[in-house]
Design goal:
Blueprint (H helix, E strand, L loop, with lengths): L10 H12 L6 E5 L6 H13 L4 E2 L5 E2 L5 H7 L6 E4 L10 H9 L12 E5 L7 H12 L5 E7 L7 H4 L3 E4 L5 H10 L4 H11 L3 H8 L2 H16 L5 H14 L4 H21 L11 H8 L4 H19 L4 H12 L8
Length: 341
């Protein structure tokens, strides 16, 4: 059963939604924004369950929550509640069309609820709605039928029209502290060192951390990439470019993870040089390699490398030349050439 107690962190978001429920002051439209895996779906599901629950209770946090036992809660547990509609892009589609919005939301919203007096529509990846789809939705948001509530879930509100945004209550998920994510991963069976690395890579997203934990390919990627990084101090620059390029090609779909792992590695090297304390390292299981590799770099070169990783990541996000960016990144890893921007 999904409830507000299932949503880790995000206290401001939970407080707003639970107060709206307890005060019976429900908006006609909400926008929940946050990266993938940040808890938007959990928050929406908890809100919907508490909204439809026949016997709401005070949850473990002392605030409004669903009972999990009534008929409506059981129907929601089995995705069989007639007055809740989940709308999302079709498999493989890169957009959410106006036709889908008109058929599954705009037209349906005029039909009376089957149970009770309320209908809820959850639009996942609302930021993929085409401009035509957003305009089709606009009138329903402006003049919603009585008892209709629309939840728009998106990763980037900047892709939505200002006219849509202005008519929604905007809420955002917040990144979880690494310690919270680590604890969840350890309970799932991850060893503490791996849990720390995954938490650092997740950027506060539990969903992202769990996806990486369950991906066997990622374990091999981390091992191969860290082995490469630890060997760089003894490699000629041409070999660094060759082997690094091969790994970038092999793990082309993991580009963001390679950048994040690189940032973790060189940040750990800097921590070791300045403090020499294993407890401060993210990749504690690589402590011997970190200790050895750190002796080949100066503090200033490690700072420069971490800054370069962040800048290269920003450039790649703006569709920079991937091959050139990767070469500049790999050259910076040697600590022998300064790159000026």
């Amino acid at each position: 059963m999904v409830s507000f107690s299932s949503l880790l962190g995000n206290e401001a978001l939970k407080t707003h939604l639970q107060k709206a429920l307890s005060d019976q002051h429900i908006s006609h439209a909400y926008l929940l924004e946050g990266p993938e895996g940040s808890g938007k779906k959990t928050a929406a599901a908890a809100f919907v369950r508490a909204l439809f629950c026949l016997h709401p209770v005070t949850g473990p946090d002392g605030r409004y929550d669903s009972c999990g036992q009534c008929e409506n809660c059981r129907l929601l547990d089995h995705d069989a509640f007639p007055d809740l509609a989940l709308i999302e892009p079709e498999d493989g589609a890169k957009s959410l069309s106006a036709q889908i919005i008109r058929q599954r939301l705009v037209s349906d919203a005029t039909v009376l609820p089957y149970k009770g007096s309320r209908k809820v529509y959850v639009v996942d990846r609302a930021d993929l709605m085409t401009p035509e789809a957003q305009n089709a939705l606009l009138k329903t948001i402006e003049e919603p039928p009585q008892g209709v509530t629309i939840l728009l879930l998106c990763q980037s509100a900047s892709l939505l029209l200002p006219t849509v945004l202005s008519r929604c209550v905007r809420l955002s998920t917040a990144p979880l502290p690494p310690s919270v994510i680590e604890n969840v991963l350890v309970k799932r069976g991850a060893d503490p060192s791996r849990a720390a690395s995954l938490a650092a890579l997740s950027q506060g997203s539990l969903g992202k951390a769990l996806a990486l934990f369950e991906d066997d390919n990622f374990s091999a990627l981390r091992e191969n990439w860290f082995h490469f990084l630890s060997s760089i101090p003894t490699m000629p620059q041409i070999e660094v470019l060759q082997k690094g390029g091969e790994l970038f090609d092999t793990y082309a779909s993991f580009q963001d993870q390679l950048l994040s792992l690189s940032l973790i590695w060189f940040s750990d090297l800097l921590k070791w040089k300045t403090a020499g304390d294993r407890a401060l390292l993210v990749s504690k299981d690589y402590c011997p390699q970190i200790q050895k590799a750190s002796s080949f770099y100066t503090d200033s070169s490690l700072i420069a490398i971490t800054e370069t990783i962040r800048r290269i990541g920003a450039c790649l996000a703006r569709n920079a030349n991937k091959g050139l960016a990767q070469d500049l990144l790999l050259i910076s890893f040697t600590g022998k050439d300064q790159i000026y921007w």
